[in-house]
Amino acid sequence: MVKVIASSLRKGNVVEHDDGKLYIVLVAENIHPGKGNSVTKVDMRRISDGVKVAASWRTVEMVEKADVDERAYQFLYHDGEGYHFMEPTTYEQIAVSEDVVGDQAAYLTDGMEVYIRTFDGVALSIELPQRVSLEIVETEPVVKGQTASSSFKPATLNNGVKTMVPPHIGVGTKVVVMTADGSYVERAKD
């Protein structure tokens, strides 16, 4: 355990709270009001049982932060136990539960490299690449003359996620989307 200033807490950090238990930070926000002390508000999940709690500290307060191992893993497969990943240098495998992976599961593809944070061998959080290339499987037909329009149309990607794309993008086109929210970035270059 290391003491850190509360304002330095970020998503994925593991901290020890007042009850002596370990929590993973889900959201950390520094609030600077016009008057009074600045505050760090944090939403956390207790590692032992998954209970979510909210806490706040003055930004200058010291908080106990656990040393978390963060390494690159390759996605292998999904089954009843969860999502299975392999550490590429040691070939060590880890199973990550569905509640840790969450909505990001839709973007996992065979062999994808992700970063997994673990504490005492237990997976705490997973970080996917920021952008992935996916194919459009369903959208409205392309309308001639709408290439410069600023409007977007709904589309379904080959992983089932719905997004908004420019009108000139048709079915079968590969596009780059953000894994954080599924938003369209650009047409894929590959």
UniProtKB/TrEMBL annotation:
<dbReference type="Pfam" id="PF08207">
    <property type="entry name" value="EFP_N"/>
</dbReference>
<dbReference type="InterPro" id="IPR014722">
    <property type="entry name" value="Rib_uL2_dom2"/>
</dbReference>
<dbReference type="GO" id="GO:0043043">
    <property type="term" value="P:peptide biosynthetic process"/>
</dbReference>
<feature type="domain" description="Elongation factor P C-terminal">
    <location>
        <begin position="132"/>
        <end position="187"/>
    </location>
</feature>
<dbReference type="InterPro" id="IPR015365">
    <property type="entry name" value="Elong-fact-P_C"/>
</dbReference>
<keyword id="KW-0251">Elongation factor</keyword>
<dbReference type="Pfam" id="PF01132">
    <property type="entry name" value="EFP"/>
</dbReference>
<dbReference type="InterPro" id="IPR012340">
    <property type="entry name" value="NA-bd_OB-fold"/>
</dbReference>
<keyword id="KW-0963">Cytoplasm</keyword>
<dbReference type="GO" id="GO:0005829">
    <property type="term" value="C:cytosol"/>
</dbReference>
<dbReference type="InterPro" id="IPR001059">
    <property type="entry name" value="Transl_elong_P/YeiP_cen"/>
</dbReference>
<protein>
    <recommendedName>
        <fullName>Elongation factor P</fullName>
    </recommendedName>
</protein>
<dbReference type="InterPro" id="IPR011768">
    <property type="entry name" value="Transl_elongation_fac_P"/>
</dbReference>
<dbReference type="InterPro" id="IPR013852">
    <property type="entry name" value="Transl_elong_P/YeiP_CS"/>
</dbReference>
<comment type="pathway">
    <text>Protein biosynthesis; polypeptide chain elongation.</text>
</comment>
<dbReference type="InterPro" id="IPR013185">
    <property type="entry name" value="Transl_elong_KOW-like"/>
</dbReference>
<feature type="domain" description="Translation elongation factor P/YeiP central">
    <location>
        <begin position="70"/>
        <end position="124"/>
    </location>
</feature>
<dbReference type="InterPro" id="IPR008991">
    <property type="entry name" value="Translation_prot_SH3-like_sf"/>
</dbReference>
<dbReference type="Pfam" id="PF09285">
    <property type="entry name" value="Elong-fact-P_C"/>
</dbReference>
<comment type="function">
    <text>Involved in peptide bond synthesis. Stimulates efficient translation and peptide-bond synthesis on native or reconstituted 70S ribosomes in vitro. Probably functions indirectly by altering the affinity of the ribosome for aminoacyl-tRNA, thus increasing their reactivity as acceptors for peptidyl transferase.</text>
</comment>
<keyword id="KW-0648">Protein biosynthesis</keyword>
<comment type="similarity">
    <text>Belongs to the elongation factor P family.</text>
</comment>
<dbReference type="InterPro" id="IPR020599">
    <property type="entry name" value="Transl_elong_fac_P/YeiP"/>
</dbReference>
<dbReference type="GO" id="GO:0003746">
    <property type="term" value="F:translation elongation factor activity"/>
</dbReference>
